[in-house]
Each structure stands twice: as structure tokens, then as C-alpha cells.
Amino acid sequence: MSLLDSVKHHxxxxxxxxxxxxxxxxxxxxxTGVFSSIEMEEKIAEQVELNEAxxxxxxxxxxxIIAIKSGLESIEAKARKELGMVKENETYFIVVKPKIExxx
Length: 104
Description:
The chain has 104 residues and is mainly alpha-helical.
């Protein structure tokens, strides 16, 4: 076997090795690789959790809107609770608990 035949016979090995390393890099570290997929799954899970919290808040707000549209009682209750509204000829009392000595 001559040297030329030996080179021809083994010339494909470095090409295959380079191709293998390149494919492994793409599999693990490329933007569509395994590590990127894991990171994206974590981001998706966080976003789903955030979306669920926002949907719950939106549901509460939608219920408040329906209650406000349904009548003045809910508007009055909201004004009393959040703004401290007092009607005419109504007495407003603030009850203060006495301090207990020795308690912090």
C-alpha cells in the first residue's frame, strides 16, 4: 500500500470528526439546542404563572365592573370602604382600642 493510497483511505476521518464536533455543538449549545430549550421552558412556565395571576386579577375587576353597573349600592359600598364616605345626617365613629401596658 502506498502513501497516497493510505492518505486516500484515511482522509475522511478528520472530516467526519469535524462534522461530529460541529453537530454536537449545534445539539447542545446552538440557539435551538438542548440548553436553550430548557431555558425557554423555564421562561414559558414563568410566563404562564404570570398570566394566571393577571387573569385572576382581571376576573376580580370584571366582577367589580358588573357590580358597579348593577346598582348604586355597590358604588356606595365601594365609596364607604375606600374613600370613607359618610352620608348626610349620619354620625361617623372611630373606635380606638386602648393601649395595654406591657404589650408592644
